[in-house]
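Schema walk-through. Below, the input block comes first and the output block second. Nothing else is stored per chain. Lengths vary across the set, and this one has 220 residues.
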Amino acid sequence: MRRHGTEAAWSLVVPLKPLVRAKSRLSPVASEEFRPLLALGFALDTVSAALACGDVRDVAVVTDDPVAAGPLRALGARVIPDVPGQDLNAALAHGARAVRAVRPGAAVAALNADLPALRAAELERVLAVAAEFPRAFLADAAGIGTTLLTAGSGVELAPAFGGPSRARHLASGAYEIGLPDVESVRRDVDTGEDLRAAVELGVGMYTALHVPRLRWRGVS
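--- output ---
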């Protein structure tokens, strides 16, 4: 089988909405003032782990948030303004086009920005499988959404994130990656329960700074 990701290392596209609007469902564990800091911590840990992955050449973050841009650039990420300013999928398609404007043959992958427990070694395993297929994806821990979608060189990303995106990506013909033991790549964070599970896995240094301020009462 042809390996679609071997012509060049992966370029990752990470979408990040304005921090003031991020993670509203974390209100039971984090105050309104605290949630933007927490969302930024998630993004910084995600990007740090992605950049540490041997199969990742670069990371492009699509965001208009001026507070997030500086720290993300300091990590080594490229920050791309969200010119479409429409929705998540428009931002991802825009990011993929921007990456390929510089590297036309790039293999690209869309990665959620809320993977604070992400491990570079687990991401590398997932990308190695993805390289075998024109398009591939990894479902989230709940088995409903998607945390990673890939497209090999010359293949359109065609993102369909949001809600039950696993079913949409399957219907689009993308291969579902079924690797065991890559929980850190599946564990996105939307709710307090998600965050508790991520903390138990072991979050990165940026999120860990904020863990003592979390309000765990009522979170299983």
